[in-house]
Every structure is written in structure tokens, then in C-alpha cells.
Specification:
This protein is 40% helix and 15% strand. Bound molecules: NADP nicotinamide-adenine-dinucleotide phosphate (NAP).
């Protein structure tokens, strides 16, 4: 399965999402956030180390995930590894999109990640209260000073993408959106087509959520190919030109299974069945 590239930037077909267990903030009975639990941190670090050992290279986090603690875990997990071997993707919160707030948010992320550059920095959600031009001024500056290598967006529709492409001084690397067998909006509203035409990688988030694993099509095709429903669902995504995905699993066997989904050989009939929205 080909890697997806935007100019010189290459994203592997399957990356590792760091929301989910990494992002659950533990609160006390009064709703106050408790400090990070060392036992929990150790188990998350070990999940991450498993993923690194299996060959994951693209890690997707956000300042929002566990209020920054997901970034902290990723930073710790990459200690002792060659930084250039990994793609760190993180996201700025919608409330931090004003120029100076965005610069400050990026510095905090760099600190938590224990690195001096972020490979891919995304606007997590659009914010109609803040002009996109202001955010892009800050993002373009961050590229110029080398704190981020590539700019991306998330949850952007076509009109917003058009603005983003015009405002970005460097090619927009990705639009990260909810896309799966059960969430086909990017196909229906033109987002996928726009991304392809403009050489923007579409990163499909939450590829396994919402009953994807129990669809008749995924279960039956997986049974015939001696694969798993998750592999069918992931392969359907990454066989599409310009699409990569970032499933999360805390379990070593499922992490491996997800990575290996790229080599599944679906038949033309399987693909037609999966392509049909009523599969
Ligand atoms: N930009 C955004 O707004 C946005 C929104 C949501 C998510 N994201 C990103 O997308 C990533 C992925 O989304 P997600 O974590 O919400 O959902 P997901 O990756 O689609 O699904 C994760 C769930 O699927 C299970 N799972 C994983 N592999 C499996 C397999 N092979 N077989 C059976 N179950 C499997 C996991 O459980 P186990 O751990 O027990 O395996 C977990 O419960 C996130 O981590 C985050 O980085 C971005």
C-alpha cells in the first residue's frame, strides 16, 4: 500500500491515534482534575512503546487530549528514539486560534512533547469567532521559525479548506476528518474530492467507531479472508487514493492487526460491497 505524500511530506497509511485511553482525565468526586497517576502513565507508556516497536511512525495527539497529558506521554515515549524517525502530529484548540494564543499554545505543546519541532500542527476545530487569516499568520510564522514543519487542519469543510489553502504559505498537508464505513460525509460533501484535487492528504479519524466492526459486510468479508473486521474497515480506507488513517488501540495484538490491515487483499466484489453505503 502506497504511502501518501503532499510534496515532500509523507504520511504512512496507518498511524497511531492518541485520544481514547490516553485522553481520559481522571477527576475526583467534586469534578476536580486529579494529578496524573504514575501507574496509569506507566501503562500508557508501555502501550506506546509496543506501538513504536511494532513499527508505528505517525503519532496523532492534541493539546486537548487529557489537557495536554497525551502530548506529555508521547514526549516521554520518544525519549531514546531518533526524533527524525517519527512524525509527531498535534493540534491547537479552537479557543487558542488568535495569533498570540496560537504561538503560546505551540510553545506549550513543544515543551510537553520535549522536542524543538512538530512535524504536523493542525487546527483542531474551526472557530468562527477568530478570523482564519489571523491563525494562519501565526502558523506561517511557526513554519518560518522552524517550530512546525507542516500545517494541517481538522474538521474543515470545503469552503474553509478553500480559505486555508489560500492563506497557507506552504502546502496544506492534511485535513483530519471523521471518515469510515459508517461516516461517509467526506465523500458526500466534496471534502475528499477537494483534498485529492489539491494534494491534501485526508486523515480519517475514528475509523473503527460506531459499529463499524459489527457490520455484516466487515464481518462476512473478514471471515472469508481469515482477517478481522477492523482490518477490512481500515483497508477500505487506506486503499483509497490520498487517504490515511489513525486508529487507536491499547492492545498489542490489535495494534499489530491494524498495522497489517494494509496488506489485506480485498476482491473487486468486496470493494464494491463496501463502497455501497448500504453495505
Ligand atoms: N480531529 C478530531 O477531531 C478527532 C476526533 C476523534 C479522534 N481523533 C483521532 O483519531 C484517533 C482514532 O479515533 P478513536 O480513538 O476515537 O477511535 P478508533 O481508533 O476508531 O477506535 C478505537 C476503539 O477501537 C478499539 N479497537 C482498535 N483496534 C481494534 C481492533 N483491531 N479490533 C477491535 N477493536 C479495536 C479500541 O479498543 P482497544 O484499545 O481495546 O483495542 C478502541 O476502543 C484518536 O485516537 C485521535 O488521535 C481526532
Amino acid at each position: 500500500m502506497n504511502e501518501r505524500s503532499t510534496n515532500d511530506f509523507i504520511l504512512p497509511p496507518i498511524g497511531f491515534g492518541m485520544w481514547d485511553s490516553f485522553a481520559q482525565i481522571v477527576k475526583d468526586s467534586g469534578g476536580q482534575r486529579l494529578p496524573p497517576d504514575p501507574v496509569r502513565d506507566a501503562s500508557q507508556l508501555s502501550e506506546l512503546q509496543q506501538a513504536i516497536a511494532l513499527g508505528y511512525r505517525h503519532f496523532d495527539t492534541a493539546e486537548m487530549y487529557a489537557a495536554g497529558h497525551s502530548e506529555t506521554i508521547l514526549g516521554r515515549g520518544l525519549i531514546g528514539h531518533r526524533r527524525n524517525d517519527f512524525i509527531i502530529a498535534t493540534k491547537v484548540n479552537a479557543e487558542n486560534l488568535a495569533h498570540d494564543n496560537l504561538l503560546a499554545a505551540c510553545d506549550r505543546s513543544l515543551e510537553r512533547l520535549q522536542t524543538d519541532y512538530i512535524d504536523l500542527y493542525l487546527i483542531h476545530w474551526p472557530n468562527p469567532e477568530i478570523p482564519l487569516a489571523e491563525s494562519f499568520d501565526a502558523l506561517n510564522h511557526l513554519v518560518q521559525v522552524g517550530k512546525i514543519r507542516h500545517i494541517g487542519v481538522s474538521n474543515f469543510n470545503v469552503p474553509l479548506l478553500e480559505q486555508a489553502v489560500a492563506l497557507s504559505e506552504t502546502p496544506l498537508a492534511t485535513n483530519q476528518v471523521y471518515y469510515s464505513l459508517l461516516s461517509r460525509r467526506p465523500q458526500q460533501d466534496g471534502t475528499l474530492e477537494f483534498c485529492r484535487k489539491n494534494d491534501i492528504v485526508l486523515t480519517a479519524y475514528a475509523p473503527l467507531r460506531g459499529g463499524v466492526l459489527t457490520l455484516d459486510a466487515t464481518v462476512e468479508i473478514a471471515g472469508r479472508l481469515k482477517a478481522t473486521p477492523a482490518q477490512v474497515a481500515l483497508n477500505w480506507l487506506v486503499r483509497q487514493p490520498g487517504v490515511v488513517t489513525i486508529p487507536h488501540s491499547g492492545n498489542e495484538q490489535r495494534q499489530r492487526e491494524n498495522l497489517e490491515a494494509v496488506s489485506l487483499e480485498l476482491t473487486e466484489a468486496d470493494i464494491r460491497r463496501l463502497d455501497s453505503p448500504g453495505n
